[in-house]
Design brief:
The complex is a heterodimer of chains A (1610) and B (204).
Chain A (H helix, E strand, L loop, with lengths): L1 H30 L6 H11 L8 H5 L23 H28 L12 H7 L4 H14 L4 H18 L7 H9 L6 H46 L18 H11 L10 H4 L24 H13 L35 H6 L26 E14 L5 H22 L1 H20 L8 H50 L7 E7 L3 H61 L25 H15 L7 E7 L12 H12 E9 L2 E5 L3 E2 L5 E12 L6 E9 L4 E9 L14 E6 L16 E2 L9 E2 L3 E10 L20 H6 L14 H10 L10 H12 L14 H4 L4 H6 L1 H10 L24 H9 L11 H25 L4 H4 E2 L6 H11 L15 E2 L10 E10 L3 E2 L11 H11 L7 H6 L9 E7 L2 E4 L9 E9 L9 H5 L4 E13 L13 E14 H7 L1 E8 L8 E2 L11 H7 L2 E10 L1 E2 L3 H12 L7 H17 L8 E4 L4 E3 L11 H6 L4 H13 L6 H4 L6 E2 L2 H7 L4 H14 L3 E9 L3 E9 L4 E4 L6 E3 L7 E8 L4 E4 L19 E3 L25 H22 L6 E2 L1 H17 ...
Chain B lengths: L8 E13 L7 E7 L4 E6 L2 E3 L13 E13 L7 E9 L5 E10 L5 E12 L4 H10 L4 E2 L16 E16 L20 H7 L1
The chains are: A alpha+beta (1610), B mainly beta (204).
Chain lengths: 1610, 204
């Protein structure tokens, strides 16, 4: 730093010289007008420095100014180093310029002599001084004196300054220049001078260290100083003579051009390049960059650094020395992962503002007594403290202690070795192994003797081999054992010898240990013999072994030798050949190296030398065995020795013994880390044993977590030190007092002790040798002998905390609990494996060590104990179950809850599940259980027909599977389900809405506004109403005028006709007056029945009545479940029945006619319209004119045959000649239809696998999108979902399929009739909307054979089948997708006749001409043929106004075109439909049953009246019904009437046949009910009911029900 | 005494929707309703309510104070489906349309006592910036089809929301027979304060 400073001095000097120059000019000017005065002088001083003598200027530079305001100041430390040099320079330049500017400003202010208020920011340094943190006090103090001293000599000032400097230095925080210093820095000249040279080092030393930190602050401070300086300048000028300004010149600021500056900068500064550094520069030579991330290692996200900055940094680093160390292997700057977390870890504080309020707020808290509920406590019910743990601490032995002398160390070693010896001796393994060896040898001997062996030769051989290997091993073991014994003995003797020598050496004895070696005499001869025999046996065995080995090797050798020979031969042959070849053409010689290596000639194994083996064996024996004749040595350690008394010992030893005496030891007993008791403090004995013999009875509450003993040692009366901690095991629960053995637990301490006497210390190296080699380090260690056991209570019960307490699950217990033992097994679980292991490792069953193991194995293998052959996962699960599973499943409440959460229909809306099991009735489950039971049982009661029952079951199964499949999807939500958001409006809507602003608030012609839709969540019974608006009807059948031939006064004929003519003409003059005018009359009214609620309109008159009435019917959802899915599955129909109200005069007596009217009202059913609720629900409103379903025979009524319109197709005419009713039906409030759900589901389904070509699917999507863009409301269908949930292209459904042959044979020549019959057949298949069967799911299309098997389907299936039949009949036919009333979006069939088109309603079998106004099909979206799809792109979509010519591409957009040719898709339909004949007998049976059921029902519906059945009439009707079927209701009316008239002349007859396809009984009953036949309450009424079922192939049944009421005329 | 073996427990809640902090909005009103499980039924009081329009106070906190009382009693057989109160706050936007300013929900506290709950309020976000603009312009912000959505978990994953402010509610909760039916919801120390023992001492 210093050197830098000096090198830089030149530069500085230059600068200063410049400054000096300019200042000198000024000074000269100022000199003359200088007036004495303290203030001025000071200011001058401070400003210009010493004015007069340039020579004396230098000392001044270092004088500190006495005050901040005035007086000279010393030079502050210049924070100039080579790094900042240039900056400093320019900074100074700027400062000076600013100063000048300030000065000139002050001057001008002065010239004007206006006492301008000082700007607030420019405070005088003195003012400021009081606030600055450094140096306020002393400067003020000095200020006072200084003012007097100012005029005194420089020396004084100098002295003063130096004093002050010291003071201020001590006050200012290091590194901060004081204000004065800073001031001087800017004001004084910087002349290099000798004194400066002196001063500088100190200054720099002070500041240098902090310079770097300061740089930033310096900048800020400098700015402050500018103001100061300005102020100073002002002060100076204020004190100046007014004339002084003459001497101040104003000059332009010095300017240095940018170019020059840049040049200068370039010299001094290094500007790192911004260019990217090539990687090789950043890495050591010849090293490829290594990317750890590519190698799969994790690398955290590096902090974000701009690429530019990174480049600059890299360039800079590279310029530095050893810059490469900053770069990682991948050539990038080393960086830690970004420490910034993506989310704040501290929760946001909301309550900042509330906090002060919250403090003031008082909260009421009820005073509660705190009951200690510590979980470790035994349950509060038990009397506490009954448990007791006895800890018996008998004593303590140190195996090493700091006070051990060397002898003690040896003694303890000896004692240990002796203990070891005793233990080994007790086990006497060598002896055991020797015996074993002997036994094995014997076994081999016996095995080799074939006479004695009962086994087969093989087994013996294997046995012998086993034995032999065993012998080998046992021998090895025995040798090892014997060697160990011997070495142990040797060690004992060695230590004892060492000890003896030590005792001799130190001439005193410390320990009473004494080793006696007892010699046991042995019989030398016998011993020798045994020895020799042993050796011989061993040699023999070894020889045998070697022989075996040799034989084996020999074998190997032979084979290899053979090989070698063969090879050799081959070689020779080859050589020969080669030679010959070489002779023939010598060029090739030697050019062919042998491809294979020459096999080494095998060396025959050498036979073993007996002598060598013998030698080896003998050597070993000598080494490990007692020599023969040598006496056996038995060491005995006794404590009989004498210790030398103190007097004879050297001083160090005496000291040691005294030290030992001063020491005492005690133990603390810690239970669960709490001290519970401690032993008495006992003195340490000379043998370093302490006897306590204390028993502690711990009365405990808690299950012990830990038992600890702490060993404390006290030396004299001084400190107590903790030597060690001993952890005692917690006893098993079976361990009770009295039975517990004394156990020893070792402890050791890591303390280091050095003693100044004979004691060896602890943790300190010491040596036995004189030269200090062979150093030993021993740590304090010892053993505590103790026993821990559970106490036994008075009555002999062990006082153990209950075991269950351990398993409660609190932490400590869990820690203790062994995972395996907690489930009932402990230790090794797999006994089989254990047994296997034992067998494999050849455990010796006779080894006492193995005894428990063998026992265990024997038990295991005998199968007495339970061996689990499973592995248990979640072993602890049971611990956490709070009741057993059986108990849980037995709980009715739990069952109810779980069923409800599974959304089982019966329980889905179960509210308020009772809290107790006893409150749940058993019958709650009955329905559910019954359903579960019946799932697999075909129930024939409801269905009457086995086939239909199976179909119903199948349908149910399909439904369940589909429902299950979509269960998940049902809980899948889209954003639109949750958030209602406006769609982005397009321009037109925006424009419209803008236009709307200008709209009239109350327009004269109000437009209908959409009602608000209600989500079906918060609805309850009675909230929903069905609104039916009956507007008018057309062409109601009228009562037939009495035909002339019947118009005879015959009573019988009249009575029969009367109800139909509805005119009691004979009796009523008023009515009979009508007849001459032939004015037929009908008084129709409409009755709407829905869910057994009935409403009716008023009665209107005439065949074209107008009611215009609104009827309100309440709606009740099944199970009170108003969810969308539930509403969709409502199967109820709305019946709109049209009745004719007929008045009968019942006046008996003609004479009373003048005075009273006595009539009875009867109503005659004319027809009905049936609309399923699901249609209303999906359509939200139904508005239109419907054809009234009028029975084919309506006795007494006729249509007015004045229809004008001539239809193109003649039999279409009669069908169109129906009666019509105009209706408007809606639900109030409007429910949200389930449309989005369906769409979503179909979206979901599209994701299901499809077997269609991917391209085709894409094309369909494109086609649909295009169509939807043009005509969003027109239906366009390209793909549908088949019954297995796969997407199928729609044209695959269309294919010519044969209709039943029976139908074709009926009218072999009349194609029209056949067509009609086929349509009728299709319409007879029951209609079942998909939305009902697959509630809330989607539209599934079944193929025609599936449809016929199921015998149920919706419009699509009917239409597909009909279309297929038409195709097979050779017609051109298409499927029409469009909207119809009342069905809504539906499918019709379009067929092309010779010159016109017909539209068929597949569900009713009716057909309409294209221009029929009453055609229910209102819009046409697209046509589907067997090989193409055409989308309607005409302006209109009403069938009346469109052209059905699909060949015109301007009118119909076809799917397959030239760009996408038809790929020839195979059909999903079967090749051919197979029709079974329907079982006639079954049909007859069904017919009877239906009749019976209906009769019963009618009787049920008339509970207050007697219901009589007219059998005669019934049989007549029954005969008539087949006729109706065959003629389909045409042209039979007249005959029928005549017939009836003939047979039932006496009765007034009212009735009609109903015709329906058969699916179930319930709809039949509903239909009969809705006619209201049963409502007649005339007392003598009789009924007739006949049922006829006409069977069609494939179990399609057409049901006719003829219901009639008869009133006998008197 | 019938109360000896109760078959339902009662939960009585009264309190108030005290105030709210919506820094950006003013003149708001709130609606509340309770969402509860199938085993719960309201016995007394109102389970829905709509408050007056409150303007911001002039002090620093700028709180909207409604002090709108809640008083409802439920009975139930099952703690499953414990009632939650759902708050939705509405207010006019720049054009004067009523738009939603926040939804929020909180469970009614389980144990008896007085509670002060501050719940964060949020609104669903528009799906796109364009939607955002148009919804602002048309005055039809995205809102939940049913405010009760915020009390359930199903389907929430498809929505994105933004927080708007906080509402503070005060509950005074009283329960009856809850402990008798084996549900201990009180604080840890109050286990022994059981009903039956008190009348006995009174009889003596």
């Amino acid at each position: 730093m210093l050197t830098k400073e000096f090198t830089e001095n030149d530069e500085d000097a230059q600068v200063r010289r410049q400054k000096k120059k300019s200042r000198a000019q000024r000074q000269q000017r100022k000199k003359q007008p200088r007036t004495p005065g303290p203030e001025e002088m000071v200011s001058e001083n401070c400003h210009v420095g010493p004015p007069l003598e340039p020579g004396e200027e230098k000392p001044d530079t270092h004088l500190l100014s006495t005050t901040a305001r005035r007086g000279p100041r010393s030079l502050p430390p210049v924070p100039s180093t080579s790094r900042t040099g240039f900056a400093e320079f320019s900074m100074r330049e700027r400062m000076r310029e600013k100063l000048q500017a300030a000065r000139s400003k002050a001057e001008s202010a002065l010239l004007q002599e206006i006492p301008t208020p000082r700007p607030r920011r420019l405070r005088s340094p003195s003012e400021r001084e009081s606030e600055t943190e450094f140096g306020t006090e002393p400067s003020k103090e000095i200020q006072g004196t200084q003012q007097e001293d100012d005029l005194k000599s420089y020396t004084r000032v100098k002295f003063h300054d130096s004093v002050r400097k010291l003071k201020s230095k001590s006050q200012a925080p290091p590194g901060f220049p004081s204000a004065e210093e800073a001031y001087n820095f800017f004001i004084f000249n910087f002349d290099p001078g000798p004194e400066e040279q002196e001063e500088k080092p100190t200054v720099i030393c002070r500041d240098g260290a902090n310079q770097e930190e300061e740089e930033g602050e310096e900048e800020a401070r400098r700015k402050e100083r500018e103001f100061q300086n300005g102020k100073d300048a002002e002060d100076f000028l204020l004190g100046l003579d007014p004339a002084a300004h003459n001497f101040v010149t104003v000059r332009a600021a010095e300017y240095e051009s940018t170019h020059i500056r840049l040049q200068k900068e370039k010299e001094v500064l290094f500007v790192p390049s911004r260019l990217t550094v090539p990687t090789y520069k950043k890495l050591p030579e010849n090293v490829q960059p290594r990317f750890l991330e590519d190698e799969g290692l994790y690398i955290g996200a590096r902090p974000e650094v701009a690429r530019n900055n990174q480049n600059i940094m890299e360039n800079r680093l590279l310029m530095q020395e050893s810059g490469r160390k900053w770069f990682g292997d991948d050539g990038r700057v080393l960086a830690l992962p970004s420490p910034i977390k993506p989310s704040p870890s501290r929760p946001p504080q909301f309550t900042q503002e509330l906090s002060n309020k919250a403090e003031l707020e008082t909260l009421y808290k009820k005073a509660t007594k705190y009951i200690h509920r510590h979980q470790h406590m035994i349950g509060s019910g038990d009397p506490p403290g009954n448990f007791q743990l006895d800890i018996d601490i008998s004593g303590l032995i140190f195996t090493h202690h700091p006070c051990f002398s060397r002898e003690h160390v040896l003694a303890s070693k000896l004692a240990q070795l002796y203990d070891q010896y005793l233990a080994r001796h007790q086990r006497n393994k060598a002896k055991f192994l020797t015996d074993k060896l002997q036994a094995l040898r014997n076994a081999v001997q016996t095995g080799l003797n074939p006479e004695k062996s009962h086994h087969s030769l093989d087994t013996t051989q294997t046995n012998i081999n086993e034995y032999k290997s065993e012998i080998r091993q046992t021998r090895k073991l025995r040798d090892a054992e014997q060697e160990k014994d011997r070495t142990l003995l040797k060690n004992i003797i060695k230590v004892w010898k060492e000890m003896k020598s030590l005792r001799e050496f130190q001439r005193f004895t410390n320990t009473p240990l004494k080793l006696v070696l007892r010699k046991e005499k042995v019989d030398q001869k016998a011993d020798e013999e045994a020895y020799e025999a042993e050796i011989q046996a061993e040699i023999n065995e070894l020889l045998e072994e070697h022989a075996e080995e040799y034989a084996q090797k020999m074998e190997e050798y032979k084979t290899s030798h053979q090989q070698w020979k063969a090879w050799k031969k081959a070689q020779r042959a080859k050589k020969k050949k080669n030679k010959q070849a070489a002779e023939e053409n010598p060029d090739e010689e030697g050019g062919e190296p042998f491809p294979e290596e020459e096999p080494v000639k095998p060396i025959p194994p050498e036979p073993t030398d007996t002598a060598i083996i013998e030698q080896q064996v003998r050597e070993r024996a000598v080494h490990s065995r007692r020599r023969p004749g040598e006496p056996k040595l038995v060491p005995e350690l006794t404590l009989a020795g004498n210790t030398t008394p103190n007097e004879q010992c050297p001083r160090v030893e005496v000291l040691r013994r005294e030290d030992v005496k001063r020491r005492s030891v005690y133990l603390k007993v810690l239970f669960n880390n709490k001290e519970v008791s401690r032993t008495v403090s006992r003195q340490l004995g000379a043998d370093f044993r302490v006897h306590f013999g204390q028993i502690f009875n711990l009365q405990i509450f808690n299950w012990p977590e830990s038992l600890t003993l702490q060993v404390y040692e006290t030396v004299g009366h001084s400190s107590t030190t903790l030597l060690a901690e001993v952890f005692l095991p917690i006893p098993e629960t079976t361990l009770v007092t009295g039975r517990a053995p004394i156990e020893e637990v070792e402890f050791s301490s890591s303390q280091h002790v050095t003693l100044d006497h004979e004691g060896v210390g602890s943790g300190v190296p010491f040596s036995f040798e004189a030269d200090g080699s062979n150093q030993l380090i021993l740590m304090t260690s010892g053993k505590v002998s103790h026993s821990v056991a559970w106490a036994i209570g008075e009555n002999g019960i062990p006082l153990i905390p209950p075991l269950s307490q351990q398993n409660i699950g609190f932490r400590s217990a869990l820690k203790r609990a062994d995972a395996i033992s907690s489930i009932g097994t402990s230790g090794l679980t797999d006994m089989k494996k254990l047994a296997k292991w034992a067998a494999e490792s050849k455990l010796d069953p006779n080894d006492p060590n193995n005894a428990p193991l063998m026992q265990l194995i024997s038990i295991a293998t005998s199968g007495e104990s339970y061996i689990p052959n499973f592995f248990r996962i979640e072993q602890l699960q049971q611990e956490f179950n709070f009741v057993s599973d059986e108990e849980l499943s037995r709980s009715k409440r739990f069952r109810l809850l779980s069923l409800r959460s599974q959304e089982v229909p019966e329980f889905r809306n179960y509210k308020q599940i009772p809290i107790y099991d006893r409150e749940i009735m058993e019958k709650v489950f009955q329905d559910y259980e019954k359903r579960l039971r019946d799932r697999n049982v075909i129930e024939t009661k409801d269905h009457l027909d086995a086939h239909r029952a199976t179909v119903a079951k199948y349908l149910q199964q399909v439904r369940e599977s589909v429902v299950n499949r979509f269960l998940l999807a049902k809980h899948h939500f889209l954003l639109t389900d949750l958030v209602a958001e406006e769609e982005v409006p397009n321009i037109s809507i925006l424009g419209l809405s803008l236009f709307k602003l200008a709209e009239q608030k109350r327009p004269l012609k109000p437009r209908r506004k959409g009602r608000k839709k209600v989500t079906a969540q918060n609805l309850s019974d009675g909230d929903i109403k069905l609104l039916v608006n009956i507007i008018r009807a057309y062409d109601i059948p009228v009562r037939k005028p009495i035909v002339s031939k019947f118009q005879q006064p015959s009573r019988s004929s009249r009575t029969f006709r009367e109800p139909h003519a509805a005119s009691p003409s004979a009796h009523s003059p008023a009515h009979s007056a009508d007849y001459p005018l032939s004015q037929v009359l009908v008084r129709p009214f409409v009755e709407v029945s829905f869910q057994r609620t009935i409403c009716h309109t008023t009665t209107a008159e005439g065949p074209n009545p107008s009611w215009n009435e609104e009827l309100e019917l309440p709606f009740r959802a099944p199970n009170e479940d108003y969810s969308t899915a539930s509403l969709q599955s409502v199967k109820d129909d709305v019946y709109i029945n049209i009745f004719d109200e007929v008045l009968y005069d019942v006046l008996e007596d003609d004479r009373e006619r003048g005075s009273g009217i006595h009539t009875r009202i009867e109503r005659h059913w004319l027809g009905c319209v049936k609309i399923p609720f699901s249609t209303i629900y999906f359509q939200t409103r139904i508005d239109g004119t419907f054809k009234i379903d009028i029975p084919p025979v309506l006795l007494g009524y006729s249509k007015e045959h004045n229809m004008i319109m001539e239809r193109g197709f003649d039999y279409a005419r009669s069908l169109s000649e129906g009666s019509y009713i105009t209706l408007f039906i809606t639900i109030e409030p409007q429910l949200v239809p389930a449309e989005p759900v369906r769409e979503k589901m179909s979206d979901m389904l599209k994701k299901f696998d499809s077997q269609e070509d991917e391209k085709l699917l894409q094309a369909t999507e494109k086609f649909q999108a295009e169509c939807a863009l043009k005509f969003p409301h027109r239906q366009c269908l390209t793909t549908v979902i088949d019954i297995s949930g796969k997407t199928v292209f729609i044209t695959r459904y269309l294919k010519p399929l044969n209709p039943p042959p029976e139908l074709l044979n009926v009218y072999p020549n009349n194609s029209q009739a056949t067509t009609e019959l086929v349509a009728r057949y299709v319409s007879l298949i029951p209609f079942l909307p998909d939305s009902v069967s697959f509630a809330g799911i989607c539209d599934l299309w079944s193929t025609s054979d599936q449809f016929l098997d199921l015998l149920a389907g919706d419009e699509e299936e009917h239409a597909v089948l009909l279309c297929n039949y038409f195709l097979s009949l050779g017609k051109k036919a298409w499927l029409v997708m469009g909207n119809a009333i009342p069905e809504g979006p539906t499918a019709y069939v379009l067929s092309r006749e010779k010159n016109h088109y017909l539209i068929w309603n597949p569900c009713s079998g009716h057909c309409y001409g294209q221009y029929d106004t009453f055609c229910p099909l209102k819009t046409v979206g697209c046509l589907i043929g067997p090989d193409n799809i055409w989308f309607n792109i005409q302006e209109h979509d009403s069938p009346l106004r469109i052209n059905f010519d699909v060949t015109k591409p301007k009118l119909w957009k076809s799917f397959f075109s030239r760009s996408l040719p038809y790929p020839g898709l195979s059909s999903v339909q079967p090749e051919e439909l197979i029709y079974q004949r329907t079982d006639k007998a079954a049909v007859a049976e069904l017919q009877d049953r239906i009749e019976k059921i209906l009769k019963e029902k009618i009787m049920d519906w008339r509970p207050r009246h007697l219901t009589r059945w007219n059998r005669y009439c019934t049989s007549t009707l029954r005969h008539f019904l087949p006729l109706l079927e065959s003629s389909q209701g045409d042209d039979v009316e007249e005959e029928h009437r005549a017939e009836l008239l003939k047979q039932l002349g006496d009765y007034r007859f009212s009735g009609f046949p109903l015709h329906m396809p058969y699916s179930e009984v319930k709809p039949l009953i509903e239909a009969v009910y809705s006619t209201g036949v049963h409502n007649i309450d005339v007392p003598n009424v009789e009924f007739a009911l006949a049922v006829y079922i006409h069977p069609y192939p494939k179990n399609v049944l057409s049901v006719w029900i003829y219901v009639a009421s008869l009133i006998r005329n008197r | 005494m019938a109360a000896a073996s109760p078959s339902v427990f009662l939960l009585m809640i009264n309190g108030q929707v005290e105030s709210a902090q919506f820094p950006e909005y003013d003149d708001l009103y709130c609606k509340y309703c309770f969402v509860y499980g199938q085993d719960w039924a309201p016995m007394a009081g109102l389970e829905e309510g709509i408050s007056q329009i409150a303007s911001k106070s002039q002090n620093v906190q700028r709180a909207l104070v409604w002090n709108f009382p809640i008083d409802v009693t439920f009975k139930s057989t099952n703690p499953y489906g414990w009632p939650q109160i759902v708050l939705s706050v509405y207010g006019p936007d720049v054009f004067g349309n009523d738009v939603v300013r926040g939804y929020g929900a909180v469970h009614v506290p389980f144990s008896p006592g007085r509670y002060k709950k501050t719940i964060p309020m949020f609104v669903p976000e528009s799906t796109s910036t364009l939607q955002k603009f148009t919804s602002w312009f048309m005055g039809r912000r995205p809102e939940y089809t049913d405010p009760k959505v915020v009390a359930q978990s199903e389907g929430r994953e498809v929505t994105r929301v933004r927080s708007q402010g906080f509402a503070t509610l005060i509950f005074n909760v009283v329960t009856k027979d809850l402990r008798k039916l084996g549900y201990d919801t009180g604080p840890a120390g109050t286990q022994n304060i059981l009903g039956p023992s008190l009348p006995q001492s009174n009889l003596q």
